[in-house]
Write a structure and sequence with these properties.
By secondary structure, the protein is an alpha/beta fold. The protein has 2 domains: 179 residues, P-loop containing nucleotide triphosphate hydrolases (Rossmann fold, 3-Layer(aba) Sandwich), CATH 3.40.50.300; 71 residues, no CATH class. Helices cover 36% and strands 25% of the residues. Strand 1 and strand 2 form a beta hairpin. The longest helix is centred in the C-terminal third of the chain and has 18 residues. The radius of gyration is 18 Å and the shape is globular. The structure holds adenosine-5'-triphosphate and magnesium ion. The site of magnesium ion has 4 residues, from helix 1.
């Protein structure tokens, strides 16, 4: 039977009086690539932050690696947090640190490994993320957009996480670089057995890498399943999202 390493029950997130997520329940299976999709402002990044324990929901519960985490003290959640890596929507590298220092950061903060070993681990992650060794000494401003995303992925996998959260890893990249980013995600899943939660708008990515998708609309999960299942769900939100003029569903008749 599939192992659910992360389960959310009835998550609600309100900012002031505005409800962004309403009773979201979902599971993550070990080894799968789950894509969270939905229109801009539908709460994808918010949901990702909550699943990654970076923001506390207004109500609801989260079970991570078999433990109910929202009831725990922050201190007790630390070992669980270390089993997750995150790449934020804007990459969010520290501009005044080199790539190597950026990748080393989680290891410096969370482990007592010697600096020399940390450097070796960071170089390994750099290579795993598809960057040349020369990139290690560069600052984020000296990198292309694609390289910056790879550096952020390298930092996300620095601590050998079991779950990697990626918020729009392909956005802002040309189609060839976005494809390369998809290859990287598939490579990490295959070689490291990573479980991945991916936020994306990109139909090509969804077809290529997502095992399952969750579609957010109007604060709820409008549809979930394989992309095929969601496309065939007949749900109005799925139709609007995937069959809109920018949806590029092969064979779809576009709304005019
Ligand atoms: N800290 C916050 N305070 C107030 N409102 C917030 C906060 N964070 C998010 N929101 C609101 O929650 C809603 C969902 O935002 P979120 O960033 O999760 O959307 P998204 O689906 O990731 O959008 P995009 O595709 O543009 O990245 C938005 O209306 C946003 O303004
Ligand atoms: Mg977002």
């Amino acid at each position: 039977m599939a192992e659910h390493i992360l389960q959310a029950h009835d998550l609600v997130m309100k900012f002031g009086r505005k409800c962004v997520l309403d009773r979201i329940s979902m599971q993550l299976e070990r080894g799968e690539i789950l894509a969270i999709v939905g229109g801009s402002g539908s709460g994808k990044s918010t949901l990702m932050r909550q699943l990654a324990l970076l923001q506390t929901p207004t109500s609801g519960s989260i079970e991570l690696f078999g433990e109910r985490v929202l009831e725990m003290s922050e201190f007790r959640t630390l070992p669980l947090r270390r089993r997750m890596g995150v790449m934020f929507q804007n990459g969010a590298l520290f501009g005044d640190l080199t790539v190597l220092e950026n990748i080393s950061m989680p290891l410096r903060e969370h482990t007592s490994i010697s600096l020399e070993t940390i450097e070796q681990i960071a170089m390994l992650k750099l290579a795993l993320a598809g960057l040349e060794p020369e990139a290690a000494a560069l600052f984020p401003s000296q990198l292309s957009g694609g390289m910056r995303k790879r550096a952020a992925v390298a930092r996300g996998i620095a601590m050998d996480p079991e779950i990697l959260f990626l918020d729009e890893p392909g956005s802002g990249l040309d189609p060839v670089s976005a494809d390369a980013m998809d290859d990287l995600v598939l490579h990490l899943k295959r070689t490291l057995g990573l479980t991945v939660v991916l936020v994306t708008h990109d139909m090509d990515s969804l077809w290529r890498v997502a095992d399952r998708i969750v579609l957010l609309a109007d604060t709820r999960i409008a549809a979930e399943g394989t992309l095929q299942e969601v496309l065939e769900s007949g749900h109005a939100a799925a139709h609007k999202f995937f069959h809109g003029r920018r949806g590029r569903v092969v064979g779809a008749t576009y709304d005019q």
